[in-house]
Amino acid sequence: MGKLLKGLVTITAASAAVGGLCYVFKDQIKESKIYKDNNVDEKIKNIKTKINENEKINKVKSTIQENETYNKVKNTIKEKMPIFAEKEEDYVDEGEIFFDDLDAATGDRDYVSLDSEDIKDAAEDVKEAIEDTAEEIKDAVTE
Description:
With 143 residues, the chain is mostly helical. The protein is built from 7 helices and no strands. It has a domain of 41 residues. The model has no long low-confidence stretch (mean pLDDT 77).
């Protein structure tokens, strides 16, 4: 526990030292080439703008939620929604559904063996059709 506390104190002191140096030399930092090339002032300004926008949005949201009309409408909608029955029999284990459907789908299936000669013939037919189409495209392009 002592090492952890000592490490935290060391990190805190180092961070404070770096922050102090940055504060002392802030004018030189702002004049540096890297600071100017990366438009740091503009990026900081954009971040501050976004933070302000988020704060405004959160204020509007909280104002809306505190609004009496909003709450009345929300409660009215909840009251008019149909009540769904929550019975134990309404809930079914998803695994049971899947396996029952799978068994039903594959239970009466007839398997057909494929002839390798038929497959070769079909593949040759497809190959010839592709070659014919390629020739037609070449002819159309040359015209």
